[in-house]
Design goal:
Layout: E1 3-9, E2 13-19, H1 21-32, H2 35-41, H3 48-51, H4 59-73, E3 93-96, E4 99-102, H5 103-116, H6 122-135, H7 137-145, H8 150-161, H9 168-178, H10 185-199, H11 211-243, H12 252-257, H13 259-267, H14 272-289, H15 292-312, H16 319-327, E5 344-350, H17 356-362, H18 365-375, E6 380-386, E7 392-399, H19 405-428, H20 441-463, E8 469-472, E9 482-486, H21 488-501, H22 507-523, E10 528-532, E11 536-539, E12 545-549, E13 551-557, E14 560-567, H23 575-590, E15 601-603, E16 607-614
Helix pairs in contact: 1-5, 4-5, 4-11, 5-9, 5-10, 5-11, 6-15, 9-10, 11-14, 19-20, 21-22
Length: 624
């Protein structure tokens, strides 16, 4: 039995997908149990829809785009507009539990089943559910015991152990299939076998095969995975850029029209087209998927769904109750919240080669929960997780409307302290034990210099009254240097090292840096401290220059936040008076958010400086 599905995708027109016997059976099972209708109603990008309201395509539109593109690749559908992808096994038979189907049907079933496991809110809801399950042994056992296949149970254990919430939807797909076993046990066994082939691999298949057949299966699976993953990528890049708030789009219609010319470029090797797709993928990740506001909405929803699950967990007695809970959309539907008023800071920590296990040990659900409690769960939402490619960890801190300016400074100070300690931990780690020198320490140092440079600018936005624009004098942010350490004397030593490694510094800038070294040695500050090595320029909203900061350091100690400002004039006449006068002007212009008074001091032949405690009590900046 065949079934022709049609769907109109904006910009592409009508996409058709021919389902054959096995994929039709999978579709019919999902349709009769409400999963197709659910996918029609689920927002493909989950909570991101609440941040960018124009992003409103459904998961079913995403599924149909994949199925429609796959249809174009199928050799047997040339007369129906197909463009053949020959030699990849789409038209060859593959056998599961004594039942044969084509490679095309295998991929069609992968598309249908993997997407049916997603909840409203997608990864945010699935992360929340996983976090709760890890703490609730009862629900964990209900879910695990519902999975009849031993290899699926082991897969479930592995997903939980690695906290891989990006693949938790596959566990839910297995769970949903098991709930329909009584109606058609042979079909369920068959579909589970195909889903195992995708999620786990050939070793998990029920029926033993010869080594020759296994080698053939491994090759086919590799081909199918490449096709499947490329279709997924093309589909979400097209749809998300079409609906999303980005200045570029992905010209999929042009690729489809000229598909025969692009076949090899899309599926073979790592040529210019693939690299362009991956670059565009990274662009959308930074601007939409993991933007500051998206991470804020994500963190809010994780917290909300975790609370809902906790409150309803008492009524979940068995797998039937769990199934009803998972199929009730209202348990996971993202609630709209105006995220535009609250401020968020986000950091990206690249996973350095060789450090993957170290990152996993340091960055996990337990650490995320600990830091949320440490910073105050009513004051802010802290998110810590890898991106979907698992090559970067994302860290974000979003303030709630219940957080005062004074409280926000304390939270930021704690964050600064934790980041400095994290840098020290990572630089002490050496996964290459055979080497006395860790070759990646310089990379770690560079990564945290970028993080500290972000943090300093975010601090300035919180403690200066006007909504100014802040820029480092070095326009290449990748080369901006910021030192984070404990104690001003240690910071002075690191700043001296910076001078030695930058012999080409202009004489005027070298004088400013050496002036900061003098100040740091003099004040003897013992708390956590970040010092910028570059001058900071401040502009108003019309891009007119307001002033510049010759030297800036921020410190946090005993829940008190302080700022060190310097002004260094290297001139023979009236250098002292000019420096003092300019620093006082800067302080007046900045109107720092503090009621604590402090003096302007002077170091002979170097600079004027001011060490000021910031209490956040002069005016409200955070929620204006």
């Amino acid at each position: 039995m065949k079934l022709l599905l049609n769907y109109h995708v904006p910009g592409l027109g009508k996409l058709s997908a021919q389902l054959y016997e096995s994929s039709h059976d999978a579709y019919s099972l999902l349709y009769s149990n409400g999963h197709i209708e659910r996918m029609r109603n689920i927002e493909q990008l989950g909570v991101i829809h609440n941040v960018y309201e124009g992003v409103h395509h459904s998961r079913w539109e995403y599924v149909m785009t994949q199925l429609g593109l796959l249809h174009r690749l199928y050799p047997s559908d040339k007369k129906m507009g197909g463009r053949p992808l020959e030699g990849w096994g789409l038209n060859s038979d593959i056998e599961f539990l004594d039942k044969k189907l084509s490679g095309l049907e295998v991929i069609q079933i992968w598309i249908l089943l993997s997407n049916s496991g997603h909840l409203p809110g997608t990864f945010s809801s699935e992360k929340a559910l996983m976090k709760y399950i890890l703490k609730d042994v009862h629900i964990k056992e209900i879910l695990r015991n519902s999975l009849h296949d031993y290899n699926v149970k082991l897969y479930f254990d592995s997903i939980l152990e690695t906290e891989d919430f990006y693949n938790f939807n596959k566990i839910l797909s297995f769970f949903f299939l098991e709930q329909y076993r009584d109606k058609n046990p042979e079909l369920i066994d068959f579909l589970i076998e195909i889903l195992k082939f995708y999620c786990i691999g050939c070793d998990a298949l029920t029926k033993d095969v010869t080594s020759e057949k296994k080698a053939s299966l491994v090759k086919k699976r590799s081909n199918f995975l490449l096709i499947f993953n490329r279709l997924r990528q093309i589909s979400y890049l097209y749809l998300d850029s079409l609906y999303g708030p980005v200045p570029f789009d992905f010209d999929l219609p042009s690729i489809l029209v000229n598909l025969p010319d692009h076949i090899n470029d899309l599926f073979i090797g790592d040529g210019d087209l693939i690299q362009t797709l991956n670059s565009f993928d990274s662009f959308l990740s930074n601007t939409i998927y993991q933007s500051e506001k998206s991470l804020q909405a994500h963190g809010y929803h994780v917290k909300n769904v975790t609370n809902i699950t906790k409150n309803k967990s008492r009524k979940i007695i068995d797998r039937v109750d769990l199934y009803k809970f998972l199929m009730e959309d209202s348990n996971f539907e993202p609630l709209y919240t105006n995220f535009q008023k609250s401020q968020t800071i986000r950091f990206l920590l690249d996973i350095v080669p060789g450090y993957s296990k170290i990152y996993k040990r340091l960055f996990n659900f337990e650490m995320e929960d600990f830091l949320n409690k440490r910073y105050g769960i009513t004051k802010c939402i802290f998110t810590l997780e890898p991106n979907i490619k698992k090559d970067t960890y994302m860290m974000s801190l979003s303030f709630s409307d219940k957080c005062t300016d004074t409280q926000s400074l304390i939270v930021l100070g704690k964050l600064m302290k934790d980041l400095i300690e994290l840098k020290q931990k990572l630089t002490k780690e050496n996964p290459f034990g055979v080497l006395e020198f860790n070759p990646f320490n310089l990379y770690i140092e560079s990564m945290f210099e970028r993080i500290f440079s972000q943090l300093i600018l975010f601090f300035l936005k919180q403690i200066i009254e006007s909504d100014y624009i802040y820029r480092y004098d070095n326009h290449d942010l990748s080369k901006v240097s910021c030192i984070g350490t404990v104690g001003s004397k240690d910071a002075a030593i690191l700043l001296e090292n910076y001078c030695e490694n930058h012999e080409n510094l202009p004489e005027s800038r070298l004088h400013e840096v050496k002036s900061m070294i003098k100040v740091l040695n003099l004040i003897g500050y013992r708390g956590n401290i970040i010092v910028t090595c570059d001058q900071i320029k401040i502009f108003d909203i019309d891009r007119s220059m307001v002033t510049d900061l010759d030297g800036l350091a921020v410190g946090f100690s005993k829940n008190k936040f302080s700022v060190i400002l310097i002004e260094a004039k290297k001139q023979r006449k009236r250098g002292q008076s000019s420096s003092i006068r300019q620093l006082k002007k800067n302080i007046d212009k900045l109107n720092l958010n503090t009621t604590v008074e402090s003096n302007v001091e002077y170091i002979e032949s170097y600079c004027a400086y001011s060490l000021r405690q910031i209490d956040g009590n002069k005016y409200s900046k955070l929620h204006r």
